[in-house]
């Protein structure tokens, strides 16, 4: 638990903190640490249009489970101009809108600093949203303490939350950069992914669109559940207008 103690001590020295909370592993660990050392904290959940209802439910359950003081801010498409063009600036546009609200709420509540859940494993990754965090002075305790993805997942498990959290990404990631998306298109993919979960029993699923075709990705450990139910999945997706379906047999990590 050295990482956990270091994280708590680090946050405790910051004063009143505002945490940008997404409901994922890293921001949950960060927020749980803030709750444990700082009664006077604020957690800001930015409800952006690219989130699935599943992500919203998970975030609400996690926040309740750790007893956090949550402020939910609903962002609209007009708050993120140009994001539906799906350029490589997509994440920057989104994070800029989110951190703007986190900073505003932090200021209104007299917070000393704003924090996010970026971890040390994220440093080498291409993360356009990091530029937005720098612009708003958002600090990343996990990264600063050298706490990476595996250590963060371990701390999450130690929290003992009765919530089935999976590593989720925003629904816009289902479309490659340069391929514009619509609200209707995002909703259709969300519905398709829910159908796949119901049929196969896979929790973590992403249906990525490329050149009109759907590619189904899950972790390497659960690919078998997709292939065993591929015929049923294809039939179900056909009802949603998806005619070209491929199961990615490599899967993804994380």
Structure write-up:
This protein has 2 domains: 2-159, 3-Layer(aba) Sandwich (Rossmann fold), CATH 3.40.50.620; 182-247, GMP Synthetase, Chain A, domain 3, CATH 3.30.300. It contains 10 helices and 7 strands. It has helices at residues 2-12, 25-37, 53-66, 90-108, 129-135, 141-144, 149-159, 183-200, 223-228, 230-238; strands spanning 17-21, 42-47, 70-74, 113-115, 206-210, 213-217, 245-247. The strands form 2 sheets. The chain has a 4-stranded parallel sheet with strand order 3-2-1-4, with helices on both faces. It starts with a helix and ends in a 7-residue tail after the last strand.
The chain-level structural class is alpha/beta
* Tally of strands: 7
Give the low-confidence spans.
none
Tell me about the largest β-sheet: 4 strands, parallel
Name of the CATH homologous superfamily of the largest domain: HUPs
What is the count of helical runs? 10
Strand order of the largest sheet: 3-2-1-4
Would you summarize the structure shown here?
It is built from 10 helices and 7 strands.
